[in-house]
Amino acid sequence: MTSSDAAEVAGRCAEVMYAADSASQRLGIVISDVAPGTATATVAVTDEMLNGQLICHGGYVFTLADTAFAFACNTYNERTVAAGADITFLEPVRAGATLVATAVERARRGRSGLYDVTVRAQGGAVVAEFRGRSRSLGEPFLPDA
Fold first, then answer.
1. Could you give the maximum distance between any two Cα atoms of the chain, in Å?
2. Which residues have CB under 8 Å from 13's CB, separation 6+?
3. For a FRET experiment, which of 66, 101, 127, 131 has its CA 20 to 30 Å from that of 45?
4. Mean pLDDT for the stretch of residues 32-59
5. Strand pairing class (80-89; 126-136)
6. Nearest to residue 73, comparing CAs of 44, 112, 29?
7. Which architecture characterizes domain 3-136 according to CATH?
8. Pairing relation of β-strands 98-109 and 80-89?
9. What's the confidence (pLDDT) of residue 1?
10. For the whole model, what pTM was predicted?
11. Could you tell me if residue 39 is left (phi over 0), alpha (psi between -120 and 50 degrees) or otherwise beta?
12. Within its chain, how far is the Cα of 4 from the centroid?
């Protein structure tokens, strides 16, 4: 498969996945820059996402990072799910901020993968680092690819 074919498959997987991803759609998460093993997810932090400290609830930051991870590990036409993940919160996030999560594949062996996601505020400050472990279900994502 050529790199342009691989990029096309990655894009098609992302389109199909996003169309069925009501959670990301309802939260306003936008997916971009999808390529084999990588994806970017963006969200605007609203007042509804704030916790009792008046900062973005960590669950929303995790969800954004997890979404970028999910799209990155589903770029090879193999249905892939999370086997585990963890996150380190580095900076608080305020309402009105735009968060950008960039997922990058670190390793992929057999049915397992390892992905790092950096979450940045719009100005570039790193607010969280996420590491996800994936597991392929051994099923094609796109039946015709």
1. 50
2. 34, 74, 75, 76, 77, 141, 142
3. 131
4. 97
5. antiparallel
6. 112
7. Roll (3.10)
8. unpaired
9. 60
10. 0.95
11. beta
12. 22
